[in-house]
């Protein structure tokens, strides 16, 4: 195969395009964001599916507490918990009916305090979700707006502002109560959009109001109060749902950025060290707006999520056929890094509770997983592990919709702990589980993989320990990319050479570094060094230490 000579050097605060022998550029710490996020490893728990302790078939806060030792053993230091708030569950809890309480099926506020304390004792921080863009239509704020026709906490269009033929504008829902007209929704009709104003007025839409009107000001104050409530209980920050959508018709997200910048400034003053992480998908926009970090996602951002999708979904790089390229991601990451400077971080998940499906997606096979994990845990993004990914849980097709999952239930199946009924998730009858367990009798479990030193679970743990032990593999250290085809090959911290070949066919790459001849393999499989050339077998990978001993 032809070997790309394309190479460049990047640090968290710099990006230099040039020849393969360009001088190495060390990264700088991010002075504008809490230092702990730079070294964090996030673990996402979908609470309904993690561990049930009361036998109702639905996971709870006590179950998360019971499993914290697994996270500590694995090497995780930050736990992100999806919503546990009161809700009618038309969208799995993202339709919130009370922002400052806990739904009884998960426990209560005392359980939140217990979780935070138990996690802290194990060196783990807890992040909650902040769903600032919409509430449930059962929230008291919305119920009040149905009665008080002057209430503008939500976006209402009066009958005289609506089309005379009775049709409704896109995203508007007819009023379900005494208030005439229609309200604007976000994702579902049961999720009325909270009013943060419009960036632009338009005569054809007279319901538009400015960002500094009474309703938007009240909503910004309310979100400060919500954050203050949970931060006082000890959570360390928030993952902010649909963060780009708050201000409507906002070209370039200028007003949205001002809004989040205002909230971030308030958090920094009142709760130093707390973080705000956005579900935005465009770090180059969201981090300068004030966020400490942003997730790459399969939607939003450059090319409608192309950086993420090019790796994991659409003719992905991590596919046995070898038809993809890492260039789309690498270039987007480089652009974002330049835009961010030292003020925040890019965050990389493989899977999540939403539209990012599991690594084990029914196409990739277990032999392909180590190369993917090697990339995830050695690239200078903040890695995020969705529960069960560490054992290779699969996305299960054909499951029934539950609580508005709308096809997303395939990656919300119960955590697979052991060989007991329901894989140790719950003592409930199988037909009472929130989502059915993976029916495959050979499904992976934590218990079985703990007994096998060669398992994926132990491999992930070793990589996490290696990342923690060597700052060169973290976000603060620069990266030099030697090849963004197959195999993806890059140097971290001017010490560790990483190469991954996720296709089934072998690949070679030239690495112009004389230290390669004496490199020591820290982790690897199927990689051979011949002078300054690497030959990587299909699905091969390696982390090579170039330091002289």
UniProtKB/TrEMBL annotation:
Name under which the protein is recorded: Maltose alpha-D-glucosyltransferase/alpha-amylase
Domain Glycosyl hydrolase family 13 catalytic: 44-431
Ranges that cross the membrane: none
Cleavable signal peptide: 1-29
Annotated EC: 3.2.1.1, 5.4.99.16
Any one GO molecular-function label of the UniProt entry: alpha-amylase activity
Gene3D superfamilies documented for this protein: Glycosidases, Oligo-1,6-glucosidase, Domain 2
A family per Pfam: Alpha-amylase
Keywords: Glycosidase, Hydrolase, Isomerase, Signal
